[in-house]
Batch of 2 targets.
Target 1
Amino acid sequence: METIFDVRNVSYTYVGKINALNGVSFKVMPGEQISIMGSNGSGKSTLLTLLDGLIYPTSGEFYAFDSQISEDVFDAIKDNEFRSYFRKRVGFVFQNSDVQLFSSTVFEEIAFGPLQLNMTPEEVKTRVIEVLEMIGITKLKDRSPHTLSGGEKKKVCIAAVLANNPDVLLLDEPTAGLDPRTQLWLVELLQELGKAGKTIITATHDLETVEQISKRAIVMGEDHRIIVDGDVEKVLNNRELLLSTNLIHEHMHFHGKLVHEHLHVHYREHIHEH
């Protein structure tokens, strides 16, 4: 069976010697739904950016679809065919929708990807109409993406990625800033895409959605290493792990002589323990 991603002892350092990944290793197989969890600054976004081939390891090796990905490979003219192959198979939804949107209309935004795949104008039109209907944003097709609400922008970004029909979806904090209704829509969409066999990797510290969209959790520590890679339910039930990785935090409150402990969880109502 083909391996989607194989990350081997990868470290990444930004300019200025800021360490973002530290000896990270894991594999991703077809059809897996994975959440990369960790507090802000743990390296989740950097890891997704690397998986999308936008940056390369400072040390270690990264393979995608059983081929090594490096600056030499992606920048070499002779491997332009593989670059196109990679871009067709992997789609990335950025955390900040405004970074991803650049076209004059929603229709043009969604059409951009298929046009790069050398589809005919009629094929592109058909594909865009299908995706607009699937995401439920047909009424927005003539609007400028930059005039839309945050939730609408997120839907357009997802539609633009799905228009290429990628095998792999990478999503960086996809629920951030979304209202509850749009969050529910996104969760249900990811569940359906998972059932359809898509490989889905989400970077998040939203514990409420993790258990709904993934079966495997990779937890990043504040030292930019993988602390745990395992079953998502076991991870979410490991209080000490969640505390140590700053995914939940606790406060001690005094009510008279009674000590009252609160466990606070990101994006969900806090848990009370007496």
Note: Confidence is low (pLDDT under 50) at residues 252-257, 266-274.
Target 2
Amino acid sequence: MSSPTVVLVPGACHGAWWYAPVVEALTARGHRALAVTLPGLCERADELDGTTNLASHVADLVARLRDLDGDLVLVGHSYGGMVVAGVADALPGRVVGMATVDGFAPEDGDSCWASVNDAMRAWYLDGAARTGVLVDPMPQFDARATGHPLASLVQRIPLTGAHRDVPVKHYALAAHPAWTPVSPFGPVADRLRADPTWTVHDLPTTHNVLADGPDVLVGLVGEVLADVAAR
């Protein structure tokens, strides 16, 4: 049986470019890796319209992956965790592994807005003040980052529960949140530590887990792939 394709979903304001060193490293190790940009962001900014939200991000990736042969391992950073959960829920049986990296691991009806702390909500509101539609990137973000659709950050995600059936699920919490005094994702990690179906890691990084290179994230993906292969 062929190895699964690793699908890498970036966080808010970011595109496939953020994962370029990870794709390169995984490919060099013989894995198939695909990094995606969501509609309305970065090189797909011209696709932004009144319907661009969390549901459309999930639907876009589901449509793309339906045409891809073989099993899938989904990796979502930050906001990408919402999308990964939605895709796993929509493609039961196709997703054999899932990793959320310092991000959201939602259940039915959750939203980014409801899941973060006041510091993050302030960014959503202040960042959207200029256009009312897009949340501007934080000043420390890469110059390639673009505004992120506000609708995707407040929309609740509908999940049937099929996402829980993914056999291998990993969560990684960054030790240093950097952009807020307290990470909004600590409670997520605490919840999943109590769930025996999840493996939780503590990463010695900031939220920008690639700031010092791809090795930490590549190592995490390698652990997920090893767990998948062992089943």
Note: Helices lie at 20-28, 54-66, 80-90, 112-115, 118-128, 150-154, 186-193, 215-229.
